[in-house]
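Anyone else keep sequences and structure tokens together like this?

Example one:
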Amino acid sequence: MRVALVGGSLLALLIIGGCGGSDDGDSTADPASACKALVKELCSKFYGCYSDDELAAASTAVGNNETDCRTKLEGEDCGAEQLKCDSGKKYNSDKASECLSQEKSLSCSEFKNSATATPAACDQVCQ
């Protein structure tokens, strides 16, 4: 199930470096904003692509509703420690933007498939 991938795409972007604040929630200018934007997209996909039964089974990972999902994932994955790139690497906002764009373009079947759920750009946000 895709729930395990919350740690995939999200970790990619958060480790890549992103979760903070922007007015529209889609900024990738900095790691904090990028994380928030990806969390917003992931939670939207979870609650748009999974059945009520699937969501109930995954509620400990994705919360009880989309807002709860965002609060939960931002709290777990968008802190300063989670957003740091590995030593010698730095955050690339262009790759973060590409990651978010690719995540948004995933169909539900792609989102639910662990083989296609993490866009390639998400693994390149820290370079």
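And example two:
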Amino acid sequence: MTILARAPGRLRNRQRRLSTQRGQSSFEYAVVCTALGMALFFPLQDKESPDQPRSTIAMLLQAFRDGYQKFSHALSLPD
């Protein structure tokens, strides 16, 4: 039996492996995105409210609000 006679079976096996690997990376991507999404809503203690834990996303949004407030105040100052 020559090498050419065995090639079609190897090609099918390789294609099958590549298609399952492609699905594997999609699953890993979904798991990582889910973990990051859950981490944003995980409650943490912070300096501003030590008695009441806030989520990471709430702290991030508050930081954006504070930054924009300071930015708009700086713009409103006279030259």
